[in-house]
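Give me the fold.
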Amino acid sequence: MERNNLLINLKDIHFSYPGPRKVFEGLNFQLRDGERVGLIGPNGSGKTTLFQIIMGLIKPSSGVVELFGQPMKDEKDFRRMRLKIGLLFQDPDDQLFSPTVLEDVAFGPLNQGKSVEEAKGIARETLDSLGLKGFEDRVTHKLSGGEKRLVSLATVLAMRPRVLLLDEPTTGLDMETTERLVDILNGLELSYIFISHDMDFILQTTDRVYGMVKGKIVSEEEAVPHTHYHVHGFGRLPHSHSKAQGIPLGEAGHNESDNAGVANGGGEPGMKRTIKMRQMEKNQKGTVRKVSASGDMGRRIREMGLVPGVEIQIQGRAPLKDPVAVKIKDYVLTLRNDEASFIFVEVDD
């Protein structure tokens, strides 16, 4: 692909929601043909708002939005460009609405003017390319969270976009599905922008990483030591790691004193690793670093108090497939093994 072909060009964008805080103050951003960009930043920094501005779902108070070399002036302009830009929502339930998988994936091509047979053919081809052959007649709302995510991606790819915008594509995915998504995305001949807190995912699927800082998009080449005891760019921004590989996984609550302590060699920490809760041994202690479950399961886990930063101890391990007993402070919880698979805990190595 020709990399100097400008696909998205945002110039001096200003935007704020009702209230005193400004979201964007003179934001500039460009995406060229063939580029794969990761975007990281704290919650509320405007990452999703950026996608909404690109898609014309909200209008900046000032600034210029150009897509494929054309200035976007009104809804008519954006409507034409939405055929070229595929947006994957953060929650797949917001993207899937038809009774069956085939109907959902064929919906986009039908809206592009394809015949019913053409649309179904494109849908089947797209599902097959994502390893979802045989899903055509599956009931959409009965799919697992990971399956919904992949089917949502299929609905976007079936429209043959030139650019993908993906909002937190790994949210709620287990490790196996995340790795499958990495393989799929690396095999696409598309330009794309990912919003994610998962630094491992970003580094495996993009060739450039930007940060959202104080209403602007910035590039940081410097590798910053931080509390995972490893270094990479944007170490000061909140993020997580989906793969252990010697790197503890979890939300990075970075601060300058942490950075200074590690950088200056003060207080060499003990070795840590991050594992799934279901892999922990009896009486083993650890700190919850990430809950990747979504939907009802995710809510149940969080309502029990199993959130990042909480210290736990395995009270007892029952045989495989039996509940896992977990002690938090002075009370004991019981979880199913499948629930414990979505909870990642940092333990001593």
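The first strand starts at residue 6 and ends at 15.
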